């Protein structure tokens, strides 16, 4: 249960909305009970009165009071039902929107190493499906048992007015039933419902992988084989779902059986009490009918509680994720940002990249190239400077001050970093560029596109800057996508620039053109350029070569 | 408007088609549902009879034993039939969902990587996983309930008619109004729900995309703005969902209203009738038994309709899901089948007057003719966007040309396996071996080790704790760009295919790796395989026997 604690706390922040929602739910159930119980009482009372009249007895019977009551319950039932549904769903969905935003913000604090350990498809599942799963918490798991309990109390309280011991007996049976339909069903479905979320997660990852590898798998003729595997996974998951659903069907049958058994118990008990002269005829009929109307309060419980395992697993996963977001934090008392940036890697050690005792200084306005084969740790040096990663030993110094002591966000504004990986958003060309500088004008956008030799291409597109970039830049060729992210860095216009293999995927002619246009832009900046070969980079003042591992 | 009804018809047709295969389960669910109604009628009848016997007929208690036992049996039968109905629906739903997934996966294969490129893989995955799941309620509940909503009330109505035709008339008058209102509400719910599915897909794509780009967002200090945009997307999702729900709930409120009012009217009528206030019609014949039974059956008369309304959004969700699936299926079915021409040039690759254009991009390849003999190494060069990748796509069979012919070793493209390496390495989360076996499922450990050696990753593999079984990226240790590309390249070595297509294979490799790759490629070429390389790297061009330059989709011999 402890997995759900933070979520319950979060939900409870909207306590007043929850209470109103539960009251509306209870009102709906009460009206249903009132409608059926009062109607039964009324008909029996008229039947009995008619019998007395036929026997020649003069008894008074007021038809207007119960008639008004019946109409009242009929109306409140309709109104309460509709308002309850709209009100409660709105509560839950606004809670979900909050949760998503908050979780994305938590993810965004993670460092590069942690991010790479999880994968985008899984993140997606966590963000959408898991949070979706948690919506069951209030609307399916919290409110209904409370409302059912209120219903039991109302009905048994009503019966207790006429027959206390019968009310106690029925109350005990109904509470037992409630316990079975909630706790019992939760335990009954725990295993399979917990697995289900995991399995759909796995299925999703497999599907994404197949889609991303469609080219290679198609060409190699192994797509059919992989499709069989994918479908086998799907079948297995559906088979397990069928087991869980079978238990739910059983639970629902038992819910009906349980409620109807109490109806019979109430009927036989009331008949006995009537024979003993403890109850009137109309009350004898009212008791089983009130119990019958109660069944509505029990109907949804088995299905909801059988899924409890899934809800708990989703909560556990989300909790794990929030507890991870503790690395790469801002210093408690950051030092002021130095105005002048000299960057020094001092005795740096990063275990996983095989870097040890590394020293390097990048002076102000210096243009330095670090050259080395892939795997030699070039990108790690850049990641350290951008604080996507903190070193295991040693430290980075900015004009003599430890980087760890500087305010993280402010430091990153000083830095224009073109990562080795081309990351493009599934959004317009303009939106992708504007990441670099949200306030940039259209003229500025065209200027940077011109610098990377993309202006003609974008201008030639029917919708120009508003053209949608395919997922991961698929509609642009590798080299075009590369230049687009380079343009984004140029737009940021930061004093310190790190370009990691800026020209990968570009043909020689394009490389020459872009390199020449970059020259004046780089002139008064501090720049770190990374690559395999200094000849393939813009001109530099100094070259440092790293050897392979 | 016409387009909307057109697509609606297509979705309904698609849903019907899927239902045909699971008809036995659906019929079984309907039969179980009817059995449940019969059990309910028996239960209510016995309750009314017992009450009448005790209160009016003053029957001795000993005579009530067997009706009491019968009542217990009716209740057990009712619960059992309910569980069975549900179970049958579940079986139908599972079958349909699996079939839908089979079909979608087949459509992916038919459309191929290039035609699918402008769809986000998150949206496609969402369709495959979630949208297929969205079919559940429609087949498990809605379809059987659709029949039961007609048949069960009819059974009850017949009985009530026999008991008191005027009360039956009340129910009958209320009943047809309900489907009418529901149809009106349902029509707009359908449209809103389609938008809802679209929005859910967009939300999924939006998330995946932002999460993938987290590093860039961090570096550009745009995390705050991205969080806001994620929140806005979720908020948009909320408002669209609420619009669907408000309408969906409205249809159940209408039902609730009619059901409640009908019960109230029936109760008043029976009460007044029993008191003798109503002199006309059958009211005079009412007894406590018939009156109570009619009252008890009145809620049950509306119950099937209410269940149907509750699963009405299941129908809307299924229709919306079907819309996307039917569209993809149609698109896959509409691909021009290859114009089969006489098989020519049994050896080598023979391209005759091939032209290709994409909607929105115009002509990509124009009148390409090319003969590549088996074992040749060919370099295709040209600036970005000149069409060299598109030519490779045609040879690989990912797209069919608009005109012209193409045969590979006497076969049409796509008929025979090829080895392919794209611009971006494709790696899955899994071990080295799993990644290598993606395209060569039968590869032995030795073969895999040799391939790894051939691409110059031998030393790196040697450093892995569990060798080929080491999971990629384990312990935070990922592969660099060049290493990832070389691992993907190792699959080419494992391939038994005679033709190898390489799309800028050295774009992200450093000089040393590049030299190793070129050496290995030379070995591969010597082994008699045909290599077609799209590249602008001089070293790779030098490796080629023939060089062709593509310029705005036209071929020139260099």
TrEMBL record, chain A:
Keywords: ATP-binding, Membrane, Nucleotide-binding, Transmembrane, Transmembrane helix. The chain crosses the membrane at residues 141-162, 168-190, 248-268, 274-294. GO terms for molecular function: ABC-type oligopeptide transporter activity; ATP binding; ATP hydrolysis activity. Gene3D superfamilies: ABC transporter type 1, transmembrane domain, P-loop containing nucleotide triphosphate hydrolases. Residues 19-310 form the ABC transmembrane type-1 domain. SMART domains: AAA. GO terms for biological process: cell redox homeostasis; glutathione transmembrane transport. The keyword Repeat does not apply. PROSITE patterns: ABC_TM1F (PS50929), ABC_TRANSPORTER_2 (PS50893). Residues 336-549 form the ABC transporter domain. One of its GO terms (cellular component) is membrane. It is found in: Membrane. The keyword Nucleotide-binding applies. It is a multi-pass membrane protein. Its main location: membrane. Pfam families: ABC_tran (PF00005). NCBIfam families: CydC (TIGR02868). This is Uncharacterized protein. It comes from marine sediment metagenome.
From TrEMBL, chain B:
Residues 28-317 form the ABC transmembrane type-1 domain. InterPro entries: AAA+_ATPase, ABC1_TM_dom, ABC1_TM_sf, ABC_transporter-like_ATP-bd, ABC_transporter-like_CS, ABC_transptr_CydD, P-loop_NTPase, Type_1_exporter. Residues 349-558 form the ABC transporter domain. Signal peptide: none annotated. GO terms for biological process: cysteine transport. Keywords: ATP-binding, Membrane, Nucleotide-binding, Transmembrane, Transmembrane helix. It is found in: Membrane. Its main location: membrane. PROSITE patterns: ABC_TM1F, ABC_TRANSPORTER_1, ABC_TRANSPORTER_2. It is a multi-pass membrane protein. The chain crosses the membrane at residues 25-51, 63-81, 147-163, 169-189, 247-271, 277-298. Pfam families: ABC_membrane (PF00664), ABC_tran (PF00005). One of its GO terms (molecular function) is ATP hydrolysis activity. GO terms for cellular component: membrane. This is Thiol reductant ABC exporter subunit CydD. It comes from marine sediment metagenome.
